[in-house]
Design a protein that fits this description.
There is one protein chain. The protein is mostly helical. Strand 3 and strand 4 form a beta hairpin. The radius of gyration is 36 Å and the shape is elongated. A two-stranded antiparallel sheet has the order 1-2. It is 72% helix and 3% strand. The chain contains ten helices and four strands, in the order ββααααααααββαα.
Length: 232
């Protein structure tokens, strides 16, 4: 089935239909109605809308088919500055330290749905792509308050490593053991093969030294010169 930026064609076409019937209703209300009718989250619907808007700007045939040739314009999203990003993450983690959920904290910080979605997307993006920054902020909070907090939940000082990190570490250790085991198997196979070759070579040498007339001559030669330095 054809997809547009990961969204099914039929879902995109249905969203376009909802947009056509929008009239004086806000986009937020359209997203809510579409989400309620399809069982999708409002955030997913919003992301689909931005994908449709981008497609309409990049693909004239798509714009002609669904929007009478006019690309969908969207309001430019204000980018977070580095200090704003850090401050937002720290406020959310501080709230989690006090037992609140990230959703509740974001709602308190934002004040409206649009800002809340912006904060939520930024927070999720930082968790996914800037884990060192999250760890740095968590360590800063722990140094200030003595409580370890992570994006998933709160851990006491006796449990410094969160469960998510432990599971990831366990998975990495298991993968490492698998790699080591495979390497050992390969090395053992090589050593067994080499041992077989040496056994054959040993048999050949015994035959030369002790088997037949030539073997007897060799043994006698070594016995006769055993007290001499054969290199001189």
């Amino acid at each position: 089935m054809d997809k547009i930026y990961g969204f099914k064609q039929k879902d995109v076409e249905l969203l376009v239909k909802y947009l056509e019937e929008r009239q004086n209703v806000s986009l937020s209300k359209v997203f809510e109605r579409f989400a309620a009718d399809t069982g999708k989250s409002k955030g997913t619907v919003r992301n689909m809308y931005y994908a449709v808007a981008k497609k309409s700007r990049e693909d004239q045939a798509f714009a002609d088919k669904y929007f009478n040739g006019k690309p969908v314009s969207v309001q430019k999203i204000a980018e977070f500055k580095e200090e704003e990003e850090r401050e937002l993450v720290k406020k959310i983690l501080l709230g989690k330290k006090d037992g609140k959920s990230a959703r509740k904290i974001i709602g308190e910080l934002a004040g409206d749905d649009k800002t809340a979605l912006r904060y939520q997307n930024k927070y999720r993006n930082v968790l996914k792509n800037k884990q060192p920054l999250v760890g740095e902020i968590a360590a800063e909070i722990r140094a200030e308050s003595g409580v370890f907090v992570d994006p998933v939940g709160i851990r006491s000082n006796s449990r410094i490593v969160p469960d998510t990190m432990l599971r990831r570490l366990q998975s990495e250790i298991n993968a490492l053991l698998d790699r080591v085991t495979d390497k050992l198997k390969q090395e053992n196979a090589y050593l067994r093969e080499r041992l077989g070759e040496l056994e054959v070579e040993n048999i050949r040498l015994k035959n030369v030294l002790y088997g037949g007339d030539d073997g007897k001559k060799a043994v006698n030669w070594f016995l006769k010169d055993k007290e001499k330095n054969i290199l001189n």
